[in-house]
Amino acid sequence: MCIFASEMRILLLGEYSNVHWNLALGLRALGHEVCVVSDGDNWKNYQRDIDLRRKSVSPADTLRYLLNLFMTFPKFKDFDVVQIINPVFLSLKADKIKPFYNYLRNHNKKIFMGAFGMDYYYIKSCLDCKTFRYSDFNIGNKIRQTSFNDIWLQDWYYGSKGKLNQYIAHDCNGIISGLYEYDCAYQSEFKEKTCFIPFPIDTSAVVQKNIQKHDKVRFFIGIQKKRSAYKGTDIMLEALEDARRDYPDKVEIVKVESVPFPEYKLLLSDSDVILDQLYAYTPAMNALTAMAQGLVVIGGGEPEAYDLLGDYELRPVVNVQPDKRSVYDAVVELATHPERISDLSRKSIEYVRRFHDCKKVAEKYIQFYHSR
Q1: b vs e for 167-184, b when ≥16 Cβ sit within 10 Å of the residue's Cβ?
Q2: CB-based contacts of 196: which residues, under 8 Å, 6+ apart?
Q3: What separation in angstroms does the CA of 231 have from each of 192, 203, 235, 273, 292?
Q4: How many CA atoms lie within 13 A of 123 on its CB side?
């Protein structure tokens, strides 16, 4: 039970990978009034209470979007807490977002910013080549060169998004980091106002996969073509295809490209192992959703991330280093020793229940909201 019994009015604005909707479920279970406002995270089309989707950047759709914002924002007053998913929480250029942030700041009691994804401080910590052994932007002391990273740098590090990020980080009441990587990014400058809270998963709604007796181990990989090199799924797919070539009777690939979340879940549920985010230290929402169903994750599971959770027992993620050989070896190990999968599957489910259940996570949020 949450130690704070009084009901709060909470506005969650923006969406990444179902974080805010899952958090809302936990907060509502604790008795709080919550409104989730977002665009559904674009094509993923996650649930929300108020839709702020911008259909396109055409002049007509831009005008409709702006009219919707001006009609909707007057409703966003007198909340105890407003939480924005990211400094860029609307589908506008950063300099156009600042007045909307200031409106929220002036008409509500407290405002919190999520450190849940790409932003100025995360890039800054990657570029120093010291904070992380590897990341989306560095491998050791070398900067990764991808076209996507060039775009991130122009937008977030040198551009107006970075300036907005710095303004909000200094101005807001508190910052919530959702992964080890993002927590590191904010600790040096905002240690006193940053709190790490694990991502929320609605474990009550998860349908656990049946233990499959396939002739082959089914390896699931989701591809976003525009972000493949940035996330490392290009390398993971190559390693997976090499393993299938070498062990055709043991490896099966389920490849999915940019589908809505409900369809994605159906395709995921009949697999055994998911490959996700080569350059991560921590399983994020995609991996956690799969783990809750009982899939085994090949991806980021570094000791630092477990330490931040305070976990010294469960190690369900098959951790890999950011190179094709490491991924290949992990795939082959599970394909040739499928008996390991059931044990890792059980540990994955327990891991999510222990650290990521949305009600447990919501309790931590309420404590942090009150502390600020």
Answers
A1: ebbeebbbbbbbbbbbbb
A2: 176, 177, 178, 180, 183, 308
A3: 31, 26, 9, 18, 22
A4: 21
pLDDT at 131 exceeding the cut of 80: yes
Which residue segments constitute the domains of the chain, with CATH numbers given? 9-200+358-371 (3.40.50.2000), 204-355 (3.40.50.2000)
Helix (H, G, I), strand (E, B) or coil at 305: helix
Cα–Cα distance, 134 to 132 (Å, whole number): 5
Dihedral (CA of 113, 14, 305, 126) sign: negative
Contact yes or no for 328/242 (Cβ under 8 A): yes
Could you count the other beta carbons within 10 Å of the beta carbon of residue 211? 10
State pLDDT tens for residues 171-222.
999 999 999 999 999 999 999 999 999 999 999 888 777 665 678 999 999 8
Tell me which H or E stretch contains 84: strand 81-84
367, 348, 71: which is closest to 209 by C-alpha?
348
Give the separation between CA 268 and CA 16, rounded to whole angstroms: 19
Residue type at position 323: D
Calculate the CA 293 to chain-centre distance. 17
Q: Which residue has the tokens 């709080």?
A: 32
